[in-house]
Amino acid sequence: MSGPIGGNPHFRTGRVSIADTATELVPSDSGRLMLHLTNSGGDAVYIGDETVTSETGYPVLGSSAITVSTRDAVYAITATGVSAAISYFEEYW
After folding, report:
1. Which of 6, 11, 87, 93 is the most exposed place for a label (fewest CB within 10 A)?
2. What is the pTM of this model?
């Protein structure tokens, strides 16, 4: 696959600790192609924009993963008193 200006896509990985305050997982990136998020813990993590709450966010249940196609920043939060971590794999130009 060739990018908009040639070449191949790149990737980056990381792990972010999440608690009951909205935390940025990845910043916005106009070159992002795909973002794969894995919650290896036992408790749900909720993803959304910077206003995400455990009531409004999309749940990534414990021991599960999700792939999203967005160029926006992605935030996560847990329920009150819970801590978790999300690992990510991001493909971009």
Report:
1. 6
2. 0.90
User: Would you report the helix, strand and coil content of the chain in percent, each value rounded to 5?
Assistant: 0, 50, 50
CA atoms of 32 and 9, how far apart (whole Å) = 9
Whether 35 and 27 have beta carbons less than 8 Å apart is answered as: no
Report strand pairing: 84-92 vs 10-18: antiparallel
User: What is the distance between the alpha carbons of residues 30 and 11, in angstroms, rounded to a whole number?
Assistant: 14
Measured CA to CA, the distance from residue 37 to residue 14 in angstroms comes to 10
Total count of residues recorded for the chain: 93
For 60, counting Cβ atoms within 10 Å of its Cβ (0-12 exposed, 13-18 middle, 19+ buried), the class is buried
What would the pLDDT profile of 44-61 be if each residue is shown by its tens digit?
Answer: 999 999 999 999 999 999
As a whole number of angstroms, the distance between CA 4 and CA 13 comes to 22
Other CB atoms within 10 Å distance of the CB of residue 2: 9
